[in-house]
């Protein structure tokens, strides 16, 4: 739940922007020497962006060695996105999502024909050498120092640092963000940190990480002690715990704090709980496997928002109305960002469900709700993690809600679902933070529209204690002018992906052809092919084909094809691919009016998780409208037998007539 309590001193401080009038903005001249550090950081990031053009090509690679080599082909003047296709459905969906947003003129495959070293040290050295070659710096024992010196003289002072472990798959995103923002990579051995992103990091390990970062920056000769100097951002690109267990600060044994709030504050672990600590940098954490981390980094570097989806699940009373969604939309409009707005009186569960029957077409998401890690309460009604919208494009999401990011690697939680469905940045809480710990949503929108990077925009100004809001993504992501467009870059050893379609169709490899079509953003072509195969060559419509085509069928709103895909798949595939949840989203109107037998069977196969009782009852009522009470009762009996929890069984069986 989200408590309206008294947050630690400083955590609820509203920045100066909160007091500004919401009317017409006035033109002012700002002396940058006196501008707030948050604004200066944004100007540094956006100014550097304008010095490096983006080529309208997307390079797709199959392995990490080719990924490193492709990025080494970037120059100080021109860069281009590089994504990894490991053959998985998840990688394909991420690439297709990026394609729909970036709209490249050409998509090519690239293969370097080499492998990475296996040891941590040798791999880090290899990546660093390729990284330095972008600026034509080679064969030096101290590459990082040489790079920093070169950047300060020829480019600009690096705005931050990226911390990575060559044995942690998130290094792929670290390389991209370091190369894209011109930041040094600090190679760290995270082997002593036990557990993944959903675990806790203890005091000693947290202090070791802090000491490492500060020492390495000092050794590079970069100023970092205050906001507004040189190093103002830290990106932790590792799958280490997102929450800290700090015995000296916590009030209860169960209380946890956000790693990205701890990193970048002076005396973070040596000060009493309520001490207003001064910040020297704003931090973010990049997580995921090699394909996901690369995807999230490339989204940050190459995509600029045009549309937002805003859902205000709070009552229009104090203090909740300080987070008013209508004002969020108004402030985003100042940056020419159009919003789809759901606010009073259209802010209940029914409104949520009807607005997400198809993937949302947005780049930014702002949601305010109350609840826990796996559910969120609206005005009125309760939604669960599977009700999170599917995404047509990558999004950066702000979710004002307690606990949502306590286990961001778990797709059964709210943050985990957003990330699993393509969010490349997520702001949420790892514990109960109190409402005031979140920057009021209209103020956050105003800050972002003014070019302040996400890492700084979500934090209160001035001193504040260690607290619980985390940022999962690039802290230097900023809204501003897109990169200038460069000429089409042509890489040796590359081939056009579009040329593969005809060859695969000629060979009657329909699965391969459909996969390439999806990667190219041609869902309509892929689903037409699947419809033809299902109609004319049903023996070729295999479980593999069904798994591949389920999500494109959802995106083009071909519900009959989506039902066929679900019925062709086993429960593990339905769960893993997301097509079962997608069917529940797409079938909302059918559920309200009455479902036919085939769709009812597919929906029944897709029941799972915390919403099973709610959805079983809804489906039973819909099935009764078309097939009568006996069909209703028989289905409820089947579902009740499939669950082990006695309370859930009773809820389901109580709906029988």
Please characterize this protein's 3D structure.
By secondary structure, the protein is of the alpha/beta class. Among the domains are: 295-472, Rossmann fold (3-Layer(aba) Sandwich), CATH 3.40.50; 507-586, Serine Threonine Protein Phosphatase 5, Tetratricopeptide repeat (Alpha Horseshoe); 595-657. Helices cover 41% and strands 13% of the residues. The protein is built from 26 helices and 22 strands. It has a six-stranded mixed beta sheet with strand order 14-13-15-19-20-21. It has a four-stranded mixed beta sheet with strand order 4-2-5-22, sandwiched between helices. A four-stranded parallel beta sheet has the order 7-6-9-12, sandwiched between helices. Strand 6, helix 6 (171-181) and strand 7 form a beta-alpha-beta unit. The protein is globular, with a radius of gyration of 25 Å. Residues 4-25 have low confidence and may be disordered.
